[in-house]
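TICKET #2291
ISSUE: user wants both folds in one file
ATTACHMENT 1:
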Amino acid sequence: MTAARDAGAHRRTVSRLLASACLALAGAAVQANGDTGPAGALFGTQLRGQTFQYTVRTGDTLHSISARHGEGSVAIARANALDPRQALRPGQVLELDNRHVVPADADGILVNIPQRMLFHFEDGSLRAAWPITAGGPGWRTPRGPFTVINRQTDKPWIVPKSIQAEMLREGKPVLTRVEPGPENPLGRHWIGVSIPGIGIHGTNAPSSIYALRSHGCIRMHPDDVAALFGRVEVGSPGRFVYHPALLAALADGRVFVEVHRDAYRLAREPLAALRELAEARGVADRIDWTRAAEIVAARDGIAREVTLSEHTSAERAPAPANQSPGVTDR
């Protein structure tokens, strides 16, 4: 038991120190790239995800299900009339809804920070989409374009001198290097980008995905970052954007709205931003704005239909239980 406790404490220390390292680097990156002004709403023409049933497995929690499927734990609890304080039961069937608006006109990697989603495009088409964790409000993931500058597997973490000094001040063991393995919070795959100090990497804590809690870097589930790692190469383009409100006009006439919390406090009032975007795209007269206002108020991060009744069509039928968490391969 003592060895297990020591190992757990070491893992927590390493994770905290990695956060501190990303903290310092991300702070420099924000200064270098700057915040380019208030963000508004983002337009799309397709959705990713669907409504489906999920059968709870041994060890599942609301947070682990949220992390893997890209639906907030609060939204899951509310939709299934669950008490978040109560443990889930193996075999319990949950209704999940992880529909998200896919941003249009993107190329390569696109991360919409408040949406906590990474989209990968090739030749103008969506190839994959995954939930991620981005920077917390105090240590924002910087916005702007980037290119992939390196790809590394089993990257050791070289502890910066400043973090070693912090360890010394706090009376803790001074680590200079964390080797690859289960204790390394970078995971097995690292995709370095041209924004200083920022990378897209795995994690040794998969339940920490689908949140704003890193210190600037983008975390992904180990399986997801491995898939992305195999798709990109040095020179691949990407962009980090910040749009809490999204609007999708689908080819079948339906219109959807998705709204997230403005954790960085950068965005305009979302209903006004959505109205302006809808007017610009010529779909404002197809939207039930009362329903849109309700979605704005809820800010539950799920794409919800707002089509006026004369345009409304049936919702997509539930998918089979325990489907893949949402990778699109073509």
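ATTACHMENT 2:
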Amino acid sequence: MKLMKTLFFGLIAMIVFGSGYLLRQVQEGKPAVVRDGAGKIVSFDGQKHDYYCPMHPHIHSDKPGKCPICNMALVERKADAPSVGVQIDTSQQQLIGVETGYATVTNDARQLQAQGKVTYDETAITHVHTRVEGWIEDVYVDFTGKWVERGQPLLTIYSPEMLASQRELLLAAKAKQILAGQQESSSRMFEAAKSRLRFWEMSDDQIEQVLRTGEPIRFFTLYAHHSGYVTDRKAFPHQKATPDMELYTIVDLNRVWIMADIFESDVAQIRPGQTAKVSMAYLPGKTLNARVNFVQPTVDPVTRTIKVRLEAANPGLHLKPEMFVAVDFQVPSAAALTVPAEAVLDSGVRKVVYVAKDGGRFEARDVQTGERRDGRVVILSGLSPNEKIATSGVFLLDSESQLKRAIKQ
């Protein structure tokens, strides 16, 4: 509020100063602008031409010269020149950095870049537990990060409960031989003992070994059910193991997920099945293909972004969990009228583009804008295709236009 008051009183002071300056010009016999009821210039103290400074429009003369304030060459203006817009000749446009371009219709696919983080494929994670209570004897996979193959032994466990069940199996097998006349009853006992051992993950080969030797296996071996890397290990020798204890976490990293953060204004452009390129900072120039397989239904209240999940093959294990990567989406765009983003002057209340006219004149045009596309802005209304516009130095044009309007008022 204080800044707005300061700007307001500054503008009033400038207008008063400019009005006083012009009044002194008239009183001293210097050229002054004379306009008709419509606001058009009629004459300048009877002269048919007027010379003025583009940077300081209140400076006028009836002959060529230089501005006493900025030393810029005065510009000639015809008596019937319109009083709206800004007029700057070509040499002065170059001096203050004003460049021009065209409003064009574009429909090229745009690139949307987001930051992503590599994480595990949750469908490829295996948690290893024992189904019987016991004590760990030998540990074969003894460090985190080790690769294990499916069927590879992980550890051995001494379990009194498992040992008792094996003895029950041997008794049932002996009873089956003795009670030949009651074969059905003895067979049920025998099969029940075998089923219990299978439930506790004793393999058929181990069961056959017990039956063949007539001796129970003292230390039960636990095998890996899936191949992958050990990402967590809680199995140590002589440690008690229970069914609720997670002994290993094994993850297959041949495929990984990438969680990308997409701003809520861009998420409508992302669809499941869409492809993207993934690049890593430590491997410049190398990219991997990824595919969107899920879009989170919620928005992060802090970053105002939505998580988009991509799936990617990981040959050579270049993508490592917790690594940050760049994700580039190719987003198809509908044909639309666009201008360079620098051509639009956005004051928060209105958006203006300066349209180039003949004779070095620029006309302010209110426009409505849409999305941004690789450094360009979609124009919804206010411009026509192939209209010539100012693409740089727009702020200087607007400043001169505002100053000119203030002096006129």
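RESOLUTION: both attachments delivered.
EXTRA DETAIL ON ATTACHMENT 2: Helices lie at 2-27, 90-96, 160-178, 183-199, 204-213, 394-408.
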